[in-house]
Amino acid sequence: MPARLIALFKPFDVLCQFTDAEGRATLAAFVPIPGIYPVGRLDRDSEGLLLLTDDGPLAHRLTDPRYEHPRTYFVQVERLPNDVALNQLREGINLRDGLTRPAEVELLASPPDLPERPVPIRFRKNVPTAWLRITLREGRNRQVRRMTAAVGYPTLRLVRVAIGPIRLGGLSPGQWRELDPSECEALEVIRGRPACSRSQYPRHHRNLGSR
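and the corresponding structure tokens:
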């Protein structure tokens, strides 16, 4: 049976799990579909694209670092990075768990078009911020934040906008959708068989009670 595969805009301050003994916000407040689970993770304080599926082999293929599937983020950092720092990020940073793989890093000329975060970022007065587009081909714990901190530009906000061929698109925080036919075809190359299914659920959903 073809797998279920959902794209969600994970909001800020939401855990990448469906239950929490401490009563913190989880995915259950936004995705009312049983039997699916996240493909990889986003930190509680990060936002953006999260894929959910009931297909274990597909999830493994998408998260296995051997396959180097790209993940793209918009990253707001403190201060304006210089060329030395940008090149260090591109070439690899020596973190506690080893040297990172080369990354694609672009300094954006203007902030990306993103929804406002419900909790404003903490920044210092009279200290500018900048936005980067960073694409990684590995997924270490809090990797982007550790990389930018290592070159002297702490991350203030992080929003993932793409995983491989799947993009966040026009989703707002808390909204989800089932993948469209072109996205399913792109995943068929990764999975080796049809990756998505039709279902009784609407293609777009928003939990209006979770604002």
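(Above: one complete record from the training split.) Residues 92 and 100 are 5 Å apart (CA to CA).
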